[in-house]
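Appendix B. Chain record.
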Amino acid sequence: MGGMAGAASTIAPSLVELARDRNPGFVAVLWVTGVLKVIGGLLGLALVHRRVWGRGMNRFLQLMAWGAGVLLIWHGALFVVQGLLVQTHVMSIDPELLTVSRWYTYLWGPWFVVGGLAFLLAARSHLANVTDRRDARNTGLVGGAGALVLSAAALVAGIG
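Structure tokens predicted for this chain:
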């Protein structure tokens, strides 16, 4: 929403600086992130709605739910694992980032994991009302596998 309340202690300093400078690329990323959050909310509602969707829509919902679930779990798990490695001194980071690292380890990471699990549970619940379960489930598995491959590739490339 444009405010900076709490940002200095919970977000990486480089991101805080981009936000303060109103960097156009960073602002665009924030807007895209906001739109994706709205889409995620609509996806969640569609998954738990008891309406009978058509075959194509059921497959699309499963694909998106499994993809989102895997991406969120992966993202959150990376925060938690990296943070725990820092906390146990297996890995070191700039001392300026230690406080921020704790936020990512104990708050942001776990919430991403919980969100991913919620998508997977909603996808499972959705399957209970689907007549073409096998087809929709297989499409969901493709979405989850695709998200995992994309995430692993981004990590290997150094952008994840």
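Further analysis of this model is presented in Appendix C.
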